[in-house]
Amino acid sequence: MRAECLVCESTSVNADRLARARRSDLGRDSDLIDVALAALIDREEQRRKLAALEHSPYQADDDLRLDDPRADCDHESRMTMESPPT
């Protein structure tokens, strides 16, 4: 059974890039595709994170602001590391 790509517009591969990757001995074609897909996914996740930060920067959220003197980043870690009161 042939897997159908419902999202892809094209299933072609840039022949020059594939040949260059093969000459570089970067692994089997399936390994190359896996690495390429992982890189694309990572790039898209990074793009989305940056877009989210641009839309809602940390500085706009009082609970996330690092420059707020009321924020005590170590408070929670000290609470978990200390022994409970007796």
Overview of this structure, please?
The structure is a single chain. The chain is mainly alpha-helical and 86 residues long. It has a domain at 25-56. Helices cover 50% and strands 0% of the residues. It is built from three helices and no strands. The radius of gyration is 24 Å and the shape is rod-shaped.
**SSE order, as H and E?**
HHH
Shape assignment? rod-shaped
* End-to-end CA span: 67 Å
Radius of gyration: 24 Å
Q: Report the portion of residues in β strands.
A: under 5%
Largest sheet: none
The total count of helices amounts to 3
Helix content: 40-55%
User: If you average the pLDDT, what whole number results?
Assistant: 74
Low-confidence stretches: none
Given helix and strand content, the structural type is: mainly alpha
